[in-house]
Structures are given as C-alpha cells and as structure tokens.
Amino acid sequence: MAKKNVDDYLTEGIYGKKQTKRSERQQFLGTIRERIVIALTKGQVMSDKGLAKLEEAMKSNKDAKLLMNGDVSHKFLKEEKALANKYNIPYTEVTNEDADTDIGAVLAYDYAIEKENIFIDDDDISNEDENTETNKSFFDKIKQWFS
Length: 147
What we know:
With 147 residues, this protein is an alpha+beta fold. The chain is built from 7 helices and 4 strands, in the order H-H-E-H-H-E-H-E-E-H-H. Strands 1-4-2-3 form a 4-stranded mixed sheet. The radius of gyration is 19 Å and the shape is elongated.
C-alpha cells in the first residue's frame, strides 16, 4: 500500500474516508447489500408488517445487528427494538441527512453472506396477516378496535 501524502490527509479531512459502494451504503443504512439478512421498508416498519419474518430471521441469525432508519418516528420502532432485546441483538438508529432511502430496518452482519432475497414480499405479509386474523378471539378483535 502506498504511503499517504499531505493531499490524501487533506482530502480525507474534508470529504471523509473513502468508501466502497457509497450509493449502496446510503440506501441500506450504512451497510452493503451482500451483508443483509432481511430488509424492511419504511411502510413495513411503520405498520408492523413483517415482524414475524423479522423475528424468524433474528432467531436464526443471533450474531447479526439491527440497523433502523432514524428518520422513522421512535413510536414505530418500538416492536423492532423489543424483538432485538428479546434475542440479544444489538441495534442502532442510523440517521443520514444526505441520503433519502425507503429502507426502514435492516438485519445485517459485519461480513458478506450473499443472501439472494432480502426483501419481504407484501403478498407474504398479507397471507400472514390473514392467518393471524382468523386465530384471534372475538374479544381480541374488539380490543384491537379500541387500541
């Protein structure tokens, strides 16, 4: 590796360290796609859709970390934080004012795992919701109306 000269130090001081795949890091909350186990959109996080899939991923990937979008209100991230605490998974809220992304939360490793499908299909979520709706009791449904 070549020695750094004064220009390199000045450039690094002004613009920050050089990063690989800068656009991917902006989109995926500071990590790159090849490290991601599962990614939820802002809409899925705000509506708590996909929590079962996230919990399933957390059960089987206990060494991963959860990155959450800091632009999403804290009240919407409550369930994700509770799941992370339940499975002892460290979590971080990432706020990047320079980047606008539709990603709400990401479960990722510090190294590449190359998982092909990282997004949750809305069709899978709607089927999951229908199954939980039929299993609820009458009183649970009434409680949900008032909460």
